[in-house]
Amino acid sequence: MILIPCPHCGDRNSSEFTYAGEVHSRPSPGDARQGPWRDYLYGKDNPAGWTEERWFHGSGCGKYLRAERHTVTNEIRATRPEVGAGASSRTRP
Amino acid sequence: MRRATRAGGAPQRYSAASLFRHGLTHEDWERVWRTVEMRRSYDAVVIGAGVHGLATAYYLASNHGMGNVAVVDKGYVGGGGSGRNTAIIRSNYLTPEGVRFYDRSTRLYENLSATLNFNVMFARRGHLTLAHTDASVRTMRWRAEVNKLEGVESEVIGPDEVKELVPFMDTSTKTRYPILGALYHPPGGIIRHDAVNWGYARAADSLGVEIHQGTEVTGISTDRGRVTGVTTSRGAISAPVVVNCTAGWASLVATMAGVRLPIITHPLQAAVTEPVKMFLHAVVVSGSLHVYVSQTDRGELVFGASTDPYASYSMRGSLEFTEELATHVLELMPSISKMRVLRQWAGLCDITPDFSPIMGVTPVDGFLVDVGWGTYGFKAGPAAGEAMAELVATGKTPESIAAFDLARFEEARLVGERGAAAVGH
Ligand SMILES: Cc1cc2nc3c(=O)[nH]c(=O)nc-3n(C[C@H](O)[C@H](O)[C@H](O)COP(=O)(O)OP(=O)(O)OC[C@H]3O[C@@H](n4cnc5c(N)ncnc54)[C@H](O)[C@@H]3O)c2cc1C
Ligand SMILES: [Zn+2]
User: Fold this and answer.
1) Considering only alpha carbons, which residue of chain A is nearest residue B263?
2) Among A6, B83, B246, B340, which has the highest number of CB atoms less than 10 A from its own CB?
3) Which residue's alpha carbon is at the smallest distance from atom 53 of ligand 1?
4) How close A79 gets to chain B, by Cα (Å)?
5) Per-residue pLDDT for B3 more than 70?
6) Ligand with minimal distance to B56 CA
């Protein structure tokens, strides 16, 4: 079990969260090329090391957050609130 | 192409007579495969000495006379998922292409002991996937019909028949998730995974294939879009074909060639109990309870579940896994509550979006992948190895794996196997 320091609730067990995966930026809606969209939908960095990802604190504040986690040691060195659209369950269930 | 032969002549053949002779004379058994100097060039380099890499190399040598092949592994033979899995073999998948492919593999497994002259202890036990909801009964019917169409034995049975096959199972309606039925798949079973790895390694070695353990690939060299070789912790190797068979590490190796894969690495855990007298013949899987169990020929119960809930390259087990597992197993079989868990472990699984593998060519010429085996790839080793060997030797993608290409993600041709692969591996 890893502890995730939720920026709103403090240290909580990872079982309270849903893992939402690597953070990738979406191609511009004006970009109709297949490559960038395929990559956005399916491409993964899947690094063995530090990565930035999203978690959803479903059994807590109900908000999304960003975490920097090491995928080999599972250490989390930083978390911060997700900003903008999709930040809380009310805007994006 | 050079057909290498074994340095010391033909390998020792195993037989009842040789076992008897060794027992009497106590003379040393020959080493199962050689340790040789690594050369600077091969006709093909296979990365990863799991069942996929070893089977690919074996079929290259045996079916296509290509023995000038090196299998390199950063660890040891079977140190990845191939030595950590729960060894369930089945072909009761959901898509026609999936069913055909896994059926081919199951058939190769049935005769593998004879093919390799190595006892891989395949035990056809029958495989039960329990349904606890109307939705899963529906999926079971769907799978049964697809299976039958492809000539694979599968049928939906009711709770009474489940009870007959597994008398220790609680099939009453007093449980939280009563058993409504099951998909019964008689050809399913279990195998001795280490023996499969060692058997392929030994047979490939005897045909000239070199296995280099403790050799980590650190880079893949290319020239104008063509692969030219690999760099390793023990020096560079040149080869016109490089096959990525590194499962949980597949993204890292593909990145070295500039190929991005739709794969996330998740740990998967399993546990084993102390051995008891044989009482559980069939392999039992429950998707709703996220658990499966089988009993080995030695009497241990082997348990597994779904993958850990977040991406990781860590192979540490967790207490929450064992706790959850025990809770769920006891709902199915309350009578085993006194049994003790002896050990638990984890392995890495390369999960794809559609729960199907990725086999075949990549945008880099000569750089092939046999990856995305997730939680279900051990059973696929023989058929995947056979097909990948054909692709390497002929340059043509065999029909059996055409649907599983990397380009399917771009072309929206996913092969959805989630309903047949998420919990039951
Ligand atoms: C707990 C558990 C239970 C499972 N149960 C089942 C089951 O019941 N049935 C089933 O069919 N499947 C099951 N699986 C899945 C199955 O184990 C895998 O899909 C399969 O073993 C993959 O085989 P492979 O040969 O592709 O890879 P692996 O056996 O994982 O081998 C990959 C190898 O690549 C090597 N490698 C990685 N990076 C490098 C590098 N840079 N250079 C050199 N070498 C490298 C590694 O050291 C490793 O030995 C299970 C998996 C786990 C973890
Ligand atoms: Zn919170």
Assistant:
1) A44
2) B246
3) B347
4) 16
5) no
6) 1
Domain boundaries, chain A: 1-21+48-93
User: Is B262's C-beta closer than 6 angstroms to any atom of ligand 1?
Assistant: no
Of A39, A43, A71, the CB nearest to B312: A71
Question: From the CB of residue B139, how many other CB atoms can be counted at a distance below 10 Å?
Answer: 18
Q: Pick the residue from chain B with its C-alpha nearest to A42.
A: B262
pTM: 0.95
Q: Is A2 exposed, middle or buried (0-12, 13-18, 19+ CB in 10 A)?
A: middle
Chain B positions touching chain A (beta carbons under 8 Å) = 249, 251-252, 260-265, 309-314, 318-320, 353, 409-410
CATH superfamily of A1-21+48-93: Folate-binding superfamily (3.30.2270.10)
- Whether the pLDDT of residue A19 is over 60: the answer is yes
What are the structural domains, with CATH classification, of chain B? Answer: 42-118+189-260+365-425 (3.50.50.60), 119-188+264-351 (3.30.9.10)
The CA distance from B396 to B398, in Å, is 6
pLDDT digit string (tens) for B175-188? 999 999 999 999 99
Cα–Cα nearest to B172, from B91, B46, B180: B180
Rounded CA-CA distance B334/B126 in Å is: 22
